[in-house]
Design goal:
Elements (H helix, E strand, L loop, with lengths): L1 H8 L2 E8 L2 E6 L21 E8 L15 H15 L24 H5 L5
Antiparallel strand pairs: 1-2, 1-3
InterPro entries: DUF8199, HYC_CC_PP
Pfam family, one: DUF8199
């Protein structure tokens, strides 16, 4: 949403430089390069050159509306949407560990070693 507001309010200028009917340079941020006899692709007189500026204006005024400025139907829709969106994400249930407080019995003797039974 912030990017939409930013791009709708930005103004910029496109500068084009023509020598005769040939487009020599186009620039948005810098000034367009002028044609000289050294860099001109088409050798023309200097009085045939022309510059064209295209000004793209952004939005000057932004209107900010409060919730109270909306009619009842829009207020009801926005409040319902907000309520349903916030309740969409429920927390995970608390993980129940049944043996959390269980401590195993103390071993008096290792039965496998006493009976000489080993898993091979």
């Amino acid at each position: 949403m912030a990017l939409l507001v930013l791009f709708s309010t930005v103004s910029f200028t496109v500068e084009k430089h023509f020598c005769g009917d040939v487009l020599i340079d186009t620039s948005i941020f810098n000034s367009a390069e002028k044609c000289t006899p050294d860099n001109a692709e088409v050798k023309t007189a200097v009085d045939c050159c022309k510059d064209i500026l295209d000004i793209i204006k952004g939005q000057d005024e932004l209107s900010v509306k409060a919730l109270q400025d909306l009619d009842f139907d829009h207020q009801l829709f926005l409040s319902t949407l907000t309520y349903s969106y916030l309740n969409l994400f429920e927390g995970l249930p608390e993980l129940v560990v049944p043996h959390q407080n269980y401590s195993p019995p103390n071993l008096i003797a290792d039965i496998q070693i006493l009976d000489q039974v080993f898993i091979i």
